[in-house]
Amino acid sequence: MATTETAKTGLRAYPRVYFETLMIGFSLIMGMGLVRSFLPLLASDLDPTRVLVGFVTSAWFFARAFVEIPGGLISLKIGKRRLIVIGALMGTMGSIISGFSQNIYMLIAGQAIWGCGAALFFTCNTALIMDLFKPEARGKALGTFQSIEFIGNFLGAPVGAALAVLMGYTNIFFVTSSLLFFAFMVAFTSRGLKHVDIQRHEIAKNVNLGNAVVSLKSWGLIATSFINLCRVLVTQGVMQTVIQLYLKTQLNASLEFIGLLLGLKTLGMVVATFISGHLADKIGAKPLVIIGCMIDGACLYLYPQVSDLQLLLLLATIDGSGTGFVSTSLIVLMSEQVPASVRSGAVGVYRTFMDIGGIIGPIIFMMVYNSLGASAPFTIASVVIFSNIAIALVVKSTRVKSGGARH
Question: Tell me: the pLDDT tens digits for 238-288?
């Protein structure tokens, strides 16, 4: 029987609820990936002035920033199932609203609702996996989950682009809505989620939200959350914004090449995320965070130094592996910084920092790009990532080694 914490390591021995939430998460990520390739183009059509185009993406992160912490804390009292169900339903509604958008404001509203739903699901789901697995098995569980998510993101963009050519932009949202409604039905009917909530019902009765908030004032939690902020700041600001402009204006790269480069980076992330999840259970999460930052920081510095397009493809793949090593390992390290009773709230804090990075990253690095030159964002991003190593070095790890005691 699956308890709230299990040391089982074989995938066949994982509780059913893990695979149910994996199915929900893949559907949500795949749905988001389907619209990623054309969303700015649709926004441009709805707003010819392009003044509000950036707000379409920002609305996603901005709305989430107000939901992550409250959602995590509320789940301590009412359980995770209800918020996962509500999150999937809000995602469905946001996609439908986006599909019916007649103006840029309606599209922004749809994306904001969708973002709120995603925040509720991923905050609760991450905390759920932490509850289900002991530290010696948690890395593998999280790594497998995130690698499957990245595959959905990797497949979603090209499939969405191809479908958009055949069906038009707005019709893709109804394909996405179907995926999200499927996720909602899986969450709503899941016996595993109901069982987990029943198991933790007695614990929830004794949770004092005031004390939970106080418990979140942890140096380790703030430090790992700040590393996450810097990571997303660079990802959204440089690798999702600046690099496309840099490759096109400085190296005359084609759109096909840019898509291939970003795809190879995602592929590197998928592989490294899966591997790092397994390694985190063996050697701990902290060394992998440091190794990932070293790889990522070095690659960011090298991007403007390399003019050969083939070498850039290799560099992007290596860079993706660095990002993948940090992605899962940092969550595992964060989970070690707070008591198990407040993990949901901690995940909310962690993801709020991530959302802040997503909001301000493109703005900051575009300012740097426009004022200091094309290579400056990469140099500054490299310094930011390398500074994360110093922070990670002073974060204490409390991982329980197999057969050992907490230290």
Answer: 887 788 778 888 998 886 787 788 778 888 988 898 888 888 888 888 999
What tokens appear for 368 in the block?
């740097």
Check: CB of residue 31 under 8 Å from CB of residue 156.
yes
Quote the number of domains for the chain.
2
- Considering the domain architecture, whether residues 247 and 342 belong to the same structural domain is answered as yes
| Burial of 70: CB neighbours in 10 Å, binned 0-12, 13-18, 19+ | middle
pTM, rounded to two decimals:
0.75
Q: Which domain holds residue 346?
A: 215-395
Instruction: List C-alpha distances in Å: 300 to 109, 243, 294, 320, 358.
Output: 34, 10, 10, 11, 18
**Taking Cα atoms as reference points, which of 189, 173, 206 lies closest to residue 35?**
173
User: Do 187 and 224 fall into the same domain?
Assistant: no
Q: Per residue in 125-151, pLDDT tens?
A: 888 888 788 777 778 888 888 888 778
- DSSP-H helix ranges across 168-207: 169-189, 191-199, 201-205
